[in-house]
Amino acid sequence: MSHFHGHPAMSQKKSPHFELRSGNVDALLLALNTADASALRDDLLSRFEATPDFFSNDVIALDLRSLEDGQQLALDTVIDTLSTLKARAIGVVAREAQRPWAEAFGLPLLDSQSRRGGKGAPANGQAARDGEERAAAPAPAPAAPAPAPAAAPAAEPARPVPTLLIDKPLRSGQQIYAQGDVVILDVVSYGAEVIAEGNIHVYAPLRGRALAGVKGNAQARIFCTCLEPELISIAGIYRTAEQALPADVLGKSAQIRLADEKLILEPLRMK
Questions:
Q1: Which of 124, 211, 236, 247 has a CA that sits 20 to 30 A from residue 22's CA?
Q2: What is the pLDDT of residues 24-36, one digit of tens each?
Q3: How far apart are CA 214 and CA 12, in angstroms?
Q4: What is the bridge-based pairing of β-strands 193-196 and 222-227?
Q5: What is the pTM for the complete model shown?
């Protein structure tokens, strides 16, 4: 029996305090290829722990479809690991046979769809990865037809993110985060960290950590006039000082770019 039985007009009344709309919730899709929760945790931490702001409270759907038939994964471990990395799991994408055990972890089941970058896609950030698959949770449809809304004003074009300029040395323990590119005119000392969603330019010795394209921008690059870093990273692909740099870039002008998920270190010809 309907709660509003005997009062049909009430179901049509529009409340000033809330409104139900149909829509989609955008989320990153994390494909899980192993049922070994411990190995998965170690891999996630080793990949992203060095970039503490990579996810920045992103919401993530767990895609279980790559697991083999009969495999089950301790999703609570994955959920806790993502929380450590400042990300939040909001649901799972699963095959029909996986749904009973997946639902036991308290996450809702979501549908997924392939999303290709286009003219309407953001120019940067995690939603700008061309060809990335996302998860979408459909919101409930309105209980009753709503009056046609007035025409919305045309959206203003997105303003470009200004380049961050740092003209002082970065000391050990200092961290800089740029939503776009960052230009640094003084030394980045050991123990200092530069994080950017775009490119990193250091016109001085780079001795600390430099992480470019942290929101997944694989086209980002790192440029510096004296390469001596503790760690360099582009879009989550990193290299530490434990792996010796080639002699033609160590302590010299260089650029770092990403190709086929590998870091390429090249001399930067200064003329």
A1: 124
A2: 666 778 889 999 9
A3: 47
A4: unpaired
A5: 0.49
